[in-house]
Write a structure and sequence with these properties.
Length: about 575
């Protein structure tokens, strides 16, 4: 049985005019003199109430569907033990701790333990190869690396002696006998077992650094975006307003903790809101995912458009073979969600997916199809309470805000929300270029309709300029995805002597469809019918797969670089490789 025929009542949409960040701050703890600690809000704050014995993590190992429950109290004590280990090793507040691990419980303990101690934590994606890991270590200069023995041997050991900043390598997960353990590493589990389970979480200034998230640029080295402790205010309220999180909910965010989504909404927001967080060590498998949704009685599910499309490829029968009736709210993140996925969710699962928009730099969800708002498929939604967004263009006198609806321009946000990033590590000039007066420049083109919904057009460097028209790749890709044969589509602009640029589409097909000229002609006709000849692609090329980041975004810039023979830029986030 699939679907929720009578889902429980959704949260009423809050009045943006009645919201203030000061009031949101007051919902959390004051550790004296206005100080705060992100880990305290996620764990310690629950210790004096009934939530202490509630399940915080519901862990499923890679080769099993049997869950192991870890309570808030147990996770807090394990994090305390890790904080004490850092203290005993002489690691000081403010020093950086990197985490490189599969999704296992002690990664979560290390994350919150480091933050309790006042350290700055950097999550790394375990599928990165040795060079991207080394590059991020050289940029961020961590003192401690928390990793597994297997990842250490495969991806770190060969270059670690050349990075003197790393004083400690702490191994979590299964560790070999002492005689066989890698040289210059310590068994973190054994150290934690001997450490005290009591620790006084360190009060921090609201603007003290807590997270360093790396994000790839079009060219050059990765950028390290710095976030601060008061970012937890945004995580907490957006968990409620955008994801409908409620105490006691079973919640599953499928994003890996190595990405900002996997920390902001796969660690922090669910625990500050007292939910039970499903943690699956295994990678995507459609049957397994449906089993988890069914067996763990998941209520709120936050996943990526890529994963949704992969489920759509499997057909509706697999979904309908499972009881998904406990689901109350579905949300999507990572790239714009095509309308077809919204309709598919409603038809097959019984609930629509709610798209939302944010960036590594914003630290939390900024615009969303919120639980209390009608969904407009294909739209990013409306700004979260406390967020002022606008559409702008650069004019002769500087940045000009476009007040009339349905005008295309750059999406900008007024500064002042707590999770706004506070710098790019060692790149102050690059950071300052992200702002124009009081406005943060997102680099995304969008439009706002007459009802205040925002619609994504594309990155400023993705937009195609053809014969005077500004064409957003997303709208062309969405039109192609309406065809039942199309699994994925990526669209770029290619040079044209007459038009300046014309649209070229790269398409992957669902199983059972042949990439022949007849289908190519059919797709071109569909696009012309939906979009008009000025916007529709002139060329369609079939591919077995499209280049994507590991978080699921189609890399249009890489399609364009390979098509035109241009430099490919930073490829460290390109999908591929192994999680070993």
């Amino acid at each position: 049985m699939s679907g929720s025929t009578a889902p429980s009542r959704k949260r009423q949409d809050p009045d943006p005019q009645a919201f203030s960040w000061a009031e949101a701050r007051a919902r959390l703890s004051d550790l004296g003199e206005g100080r705060i600690n992100l880990a305290f809000e996620a764990l310690d704050r629950h210790m004096d109430g009934p939530a202490a014995e509630r399940t915080a993590l519901r862990f499923l190992a890679r080769d099993s569907l049997e869950a192991r429950d870890i309570s808030y109290r147990a996770l807090n004590e394990r994090a305390n033990r890790f904080a004490n280990v850092l203290d005993e090793l002489g690691i000081r507040p403010g020093e950086r701790v990197y985490g490189l691990s599969q999704r296992i419980p002690d990664l979560y303990a290390a994350f919150f333990g480091a933050i309790k101690h006042g350290c700055v934590f950097t999550p790394l994606f375990p599928a990165f190869g040795p060079e991207p890991i080394r590059q991020r270590v050289e940029i961020g200069e961590p003192t401690v690396l928390v990793t597994t023995e297997r990842l250490y041997r495969r991806k770190v050991a060969e270059w670690i002696t050349q990075t003197p900043c790393l004083r400690e390598v702490l191994l979590i997960g299964d560790v070999s006998d002492v005689d066989e353990a890698p040289e210059n590493t310590r068994d973190a589990g054994a150290l934690m077992d001997r450490a005290s389970s009591q620790y006084s979480t360190r009060p921090m200034a609201p603007d003290a650094p807590v997270l360093l998230h790396f994000t790839s640029g079009t060219t050059g080295t990765p950028k390290g975006a710095l976030h601060v402790h008061e970012a937890v205010i945004t995580h907490h309220v957006t968990g409620q307003y955008a994801l409908d999180l409620r105490p006691g909910d079973v919640y599953w965010c499928t994003a890996d903790p190595g990405w900002v989504t996997g920390t902001s909404y796969g660690m922090i927001a669910p625990l500050t809101n007292g939910t039970t967080l499903v943690v699956d060590e295994a990678e995507f498998d459609a049957e397994r995912w449906y089993r988890i949704l069914q067996d763990q009685a998941v209520k709120v599910w936050y996943t990526a458009p890529t994963a949704i499309r992969m489920l759509m490829r499997q057909g509706p029968e697999l979904a309908r073979a499972h009881d998904l009736s406990t689901l109350r709210f579905l949300a999507s993140v990572g790239e714009p969600l095509n309308p077809e996925a919204v309709h598919w969710g409603r038809e097959v699962i019984g609930l629509p997916f709610h798209d939302n928009w944010w960036q590594t730099e914003t630290g939390g969800i900024m615009i969303a199809n919120r639980p209390g708002l009608p969904i407009r498929p294909g739209s990013m939604g409306k700004p979260i309470p406390g967020i002022e967004a606008a559409i702008a263009r650069q004019g002769e006198s500087g940045l000009q805000i476009l007040h009339e609806p349905d005008q295309t321009g750059e999406l900008v946000l007024k500064q002042g929300w707590p999770s706004m990033f506070r710098g790019y590590l060692n790149q102050e000039e690059r950071y300052l270029k992200c702002f124009d007066g009081e406005w943060y420049l997102t680099g995304d083109l969008a439009r706002r309709d007459a009802d205040g919904y925002y619609w994504f057009i594309g990155r400023t460097d993705d937009v195609i300029k053809s014969a005077g028209h500004l064409i957003g790749p997303f709208e062309v890709e969405s039109a192609l995805l309406e065809h039942p044969a199309v699994a994925e589509a990526g669209v770029i602009g290619v040079p044209d002597e007459v038009a300046g640029e014309t649209v070229k589409a790269f398409v992957t097909l669902k199983p059972g469809h042949a990439p022949d000229k007849a289908l190519q002609k059919e797709l071109l006709g569909l696009a012309r019918q939906r979009l008009g000849p000025a916007v529709a692609p002139r060329q369609i090329e079939f591919r077995d797969q499209l280049p994507r980041t590991r978080s699921g975004k189609i890399m249009r810039r890489l399609l364009r670089a390979r098509e035109l023979g241009l430099p490919e830029g930073d490829l460290s986030t390109l999908e591929g490789g192994s999680n070993d």
